[in-house]
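Support reply, case 0932

Customer input (verbatim):
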Amino acid sequence: MADSDDLFSRLFELFNQPGPINWKLAAEVSHHLVGERTPVDPWAAEEYRELTRLAEYRLEEVASLQVKPAPDVLPVDAREWADRHLEAYGYLSEPYSDIGGLAGPMAQLGPVMVGMQVGSLVGGLARWLLASFDGGLPPDRPLPVALVVPHIEAFTTRHGFDASSVRLWVVSEEVAYRAVSAVPFASDHLRRLLEAEASTIDFDPSALSGLMGMSDPGEIQDAVAGKLGGMFDSEATRAAQSETESYLGLLAGYARVLSERASRELLPDMASIRSARDLERGAPEGEVPFGPASPSSDAISRGHEFCLDVERRYGADELTRLWTSPDRIPSAGEIADPVAWAARVLLDDF
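Our regenerated output:
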């Protein structure tokens, strides 16, 4: 009786959480994916703070965007990165909280499903990224710079790069991505794209009925991925996902333009480091079949090339003006055809 009482209590606590996101399940799924803490050498704190302030100073000299100094610079392990970013990425999953019109006893599965998605997203990212720029997803609030030192050191060792160069490259990319992510409409525009994506999903709530008997986060995650995969693979959903990924690739691509200009004199091997990292980037472990995902290396490269092409064709001022309104952001088709973007955006200026 005691074991069944414990199981009932765990199920009740796991599923009976207030709000549109089940944060308890999100944290448990994230911890399940990331595992235990890894020690971080204390020497790292001061060095990374100095490198970050250098990167901020260099970026401020070349960027038209406002560069706000980070409130703090924290060398962390994967689990601490996940814990610090879990709620800052919750907004990315909120558009999915109402899919399927869950009602009655099934209504509590909406927050469960979204909590699982947030935990899977953040925990999956934390297993491999070097810092937030690597995931290519803007948080919805200012956070300290959090650098996943064990991953950075492992990446350096794998490729035989100079450790000081890799550390400066990481903070340069992170500072640039933070500046682009801080554009006033950056996260709101992403939210709208995800709402459009969620609206394409034809969801059958009965597919989730089996979750009510589960209490293990890993079991819940696997069940959802297995049962729901086909529901999120329609032509309309894929088209909406393409728009989302193109936008995320544009954000990351522009951040690359800025980091190149701020740091290339200090980092002659930047291209080699970035190329090695691009070959390693992939889908986060623990990914679930709906919601946001990191942009691919190809999407980032397309966004990067679009920014350079706009500057070559129409001048640096037009590249700067790109970030003044969401109406000027290119669609997925326009990313591949800057002339079409110019025909829509630049002609409207006259």
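We compared this against your earlier run and they match. Two observations from our side: The chain is about 60% helix and 0% strand. The first strand starts at residue 73 and ends at 76. Please reopen the case if you see a mismatch on your end.
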